[in-house]
## 1
Amino acid sequence: MQEREFWQLVEEVFGRSYGRALAQDQELTGLEDLTAVEALKAGEEPRVVWNVLCDQMDIPDTKRWGRGHNAPPMPMR
């Protein structure tokens, strides 16, 4: 997943305004309390950030990839 795809999903799943605010303000406990924006700037894989954000916001797998999207593979670590 590229960062561009991350932001597309943020808008599709959460809505443009709420999604952007959520990404800037919501501390993600699974990522050392960084926000999504901070985690991306720190070099975390967008797919990891997306999954942590969705897990924290209780977004089920059936809705987290939006319409017509398939879950991209997890990054190699």
## 2
Amino acid sequence: MFEELSPTEFKERSNSGELWQLLDVREPWELATASVPDAISIPMGEVADRLDELDREQPVAVLCHSGGRSARVAGLLAQTGFSRVANISGGIDAWSQQLDSQIPRY
């Protein structure tokens, strides 16, 4: 099971001291268009083979364009033993609207 966080909720929790890993599962061309600093980039199709790049004990929040792919990856992480997982609802599109209008919408 995983939780749903809006970009605003994610930012508030991070600012309050919660140490989240932000996993961006979008494709490289999407990252070239719009990205969030300090995110770990692993395209959705590669996550299962690259789980060792993430800390299972540290919370992971998953980001994509609108929240669909990230929800699938969040489910995978929860099923494979990650201790705390969240999906960023609305994805980078909502991030741009709620937190940083400098991030292009596409």
## 3
Amino acid sequence: MSAFGEIVSGLLGRRPAYLQVGALCLRKRDGAVQVLLISSRGTGRWIIPKGWPMRGRSLAGAARQEAWEEAGIKGKVAPDPCGSYHYDKGLDQGGAIRVEVLVYRLKTESLAEAYPEAGQRRRKWFSPAEAAERVDEPGLKAILLGL
């Protein structure tokens, strides 16, 4: 079974009520892998670009679109997820919902200065270990440390 099949099989067993897709934006600098993190609009904490599936796009395609909208990244996205994690998404009316995020690797080809959410978020490149220290979600930390 492929890694994608294992992830989907695991999700089907517990069927998350809410599913998002995330883009793990990667680049190489001086031979070392770097990961792009962005700040969330609400709390300012470090996250990866992520969002809801989109009608007419594959899950990987939706992750690529989120990378563009939230971080100004263009690149080649892997067709299968490299992992998943969950988090509790706060609701405007109070409370929270449990969300499962399928994570897709995206090889960065360009970084734009003008993009839909420019000015709403900070973005910064980190080593995988530094990125893992800055994110809150244990499952995302594990994905970053596995790079």
## 4
Amino acid sequence: MSSVNSSSTTRDRLAKQRGIPTRCNCGEAVNRFTSKTIQNPGRLFHCCPLGSQKDKTHLFKWTDKSVVEEIEDFQDLFDVRAGEAMMTRHESRIQEMEDAMCHYEEKTSECIRELRGIKALFVCCLVMVFLYHIYA
């Protein structure tokens, strides 16, 4: 029973290999061949030289499917780079906004200080008017 599970696990690992394979799970370098069968004449495939049609533990993969996977992975990589570029632009914009907020916080603090000075001057003037009315 364990050999069946082992064989199944190996097949699962082989099925998960994406792109153009270079090595079989046994460690052997993979070769590219041309099919001479009636069902797939002239179709390219990659396989382990130690494998056979009956031995499903070694790698066998059609080259056209491998190339499609390579292109899909490249597109995903390209999309990631586009996303990273967009993120960099947004980070730059965020930094500009943070700088603007810092500038406006300084301006707000400056305005508050000026208002406190005007308030003190107003209170002083009010006291003088009050004293003028009392002593006049």
